[in-house]
Structure prediction request, 706 residues.
Amino acid sequence: MKRLVLSLAAACMAFAFGVPAAQAGQGDTLAMVKERGRVLCPGHNGSYLGFAEVDDAGNWKGLDIELCKALSTAIFGSPDKAEIVPLSWAQRFPALAANDIDAIIKVTAWTLGRDTEIGLQFSRPYLIGTTQLLVTKALGAETAADLDGGSICVGAGSATERQVTDYFKKLGVEVNLITYENTNEMVASYFAGRCDALSGWGPNIAIRRASAPNPDDHVFLPDVVALEAEAIAVRQGDDQWVDIMNWLLSALMTAEQFGITQANVDDAKANPASPEVERLLGVTPGVGDRLGLSNDWAYNVIKTVGNYGEIFDRTLGADSPYKMPRGANALWTDGGVMFPLAFD
Amino acid sequence: MTDMLRPPIVDSSPLKRLFQGMFGTPLNAAISLVILGFLIWLVPGFLRWAIIDAVWTSNDPELCRAPDAGACWAVIKARGRLIFFGVYPIEEQWRAILASIVMILTVILSCVPWFWTARRIITTWLVGFTTYVLLMRGGFAGLDYVGTSSWGGLALTLFIFAAVTIAGMPLAILLVLARRSELPVVRSLAAFAIDLTRSFPLLTILFAAAVILPLALPEWLSGDKLFRVIAAFAFFFGCYQSEILRGGYQSIDKGQSEAAAALGLSYWQREFLVLLPQVFSRALPPTINQFVITFKETSIVSIIGFFDIIASTNAAIGRGDWVPYFVEAYIFAGMIFFVFVFALSKYGGYLERRPSVVGQQR
Prediction:
């Protein structure tokens, strides 16, 4: 359905109006954002738990929202210049093309089709969306291999079903897949003990676990069944804007790697541990000039929203209701696949 | 009417009549028993869930998780403001409350016959909508600017409904006049526009207005997404409503128009003084129907990224601890729809009892 609406929109654009897909000139986006005084990011039509949800007071929260606030801070020095535009999934690409938003920060997987066909350019991934397995502690399974002879709840005809099948075939382990058309039904069955493991996209599973009768009774297996890379999508042709996304994400990860947090960033700036930290925090100027930002943009971002690990923990991880393990999203130094780029 | 023609007076208490009606014949008795059994099976369980075991006030979702807890109405207490006002900033919430009251008042006043003169109704609408937009948007006299992307909840639903129907109704009248025009070009253009619009689903039209139109229009012409969508929705409403009015026209004898012409009335006098008042009278039930449908259809805008009452209900249950209590939140949203739609139906009933729906009472 999502695909259908999208292709319909693309077809309308192409045939009826002859408008090309999302395009921007070098430097256009930053200039437009600065002139407007606000940076526009997508929210959700409702809540997308963990990524774009609404708190009791009506403020947007979540991983994608925090990244938008980081972007706003990098450009304007304040998170309040981030304007969240409620959007459905189908709308995000046309909305980007129509300048209704400045960047798609909406758990969007980087795929060949999106990269080449609808005029998008992707930043480096900021989240690895892993397909994972949730089991009860009582089961005592340590890895997926321990599920031999067990049963797994999986959405019928979903990508997960294919991924789980392939993964267990590769492991050489016999499991029984129980398929469900309806996600709520699938989750309820798992909680009722109909199957030994629940499979699905990691953040979704973590969110479902949070609503279990006893969330602590359930644990993730460490196995990564499959993964997709979620990245920020922007209009093609504006390399400066892509650079800003890439170095914003890198700054968050660099800060985590050097142990710089929201709490200690002032200390780190006063007594920089290395020349790279000096450059990152703007003690040695240069990190901003080359991106069209102020030289202390990274300092402001860390001071305002914290480093990558802090953002993750607050929205999806240990400090959130969802308690999703870092897993593949940990830094390479902690066994994950996230790594900073060098600030030279 | 003479006494001879009156039906025989049934001398029985209401209770007896009820019993007669329910168990008078074996078939009626069987149907009644099945329904009663169903109610006995359903109602106590529902009451226990909805009232007796319900958690009413706690702000702590943990209480709702107790195994014997019923409905978790606490979700409404904790998250209800989202359902009413969406992501409108909480410090500015009084503006959203005031704006909603203004919008409800505008709708109520538009329903009062005293306001049905061109000058009064147009003044009401201009004042109502301007006040709403100024209050919600702010950006003057010390009020913070709040963009339409932060408008939401019942406040937004009411605005969309009122704007669509109030802009759509005059449009419907214009369209039906055009479609009945004696000028072939005007007539066929109107017919084409109506048929074209009706052959697209509402969602497609709104999606095109929200997402595709700004790609085609120059920046200065495309305006705010919300107002583009309202304009498209109003046109859609106007097309359907004009066909309802056309049905009303067809039920009026041709002699009415001819007699009015013979009396020397002009075209506009014929239409507005003679024909349209009768048309509205005849077309009242389907017109109220169309209003009710439109009120409910406003929730389609949640699909194109507006924070209407349905989207904000989704947001209300979309936060960690409150996820399992979607049934309560949807029941609450359903009750809000019920209140408005029921009021509309009752108003329709009142209009039908008036001797003349639109014109002066004699």
Remarks:
- DSSP finds 16 helices and no strands in chain B.
- The radius of gyration of chain B is 25 Å.
- The longest helix of chain B spans residues 326-353.
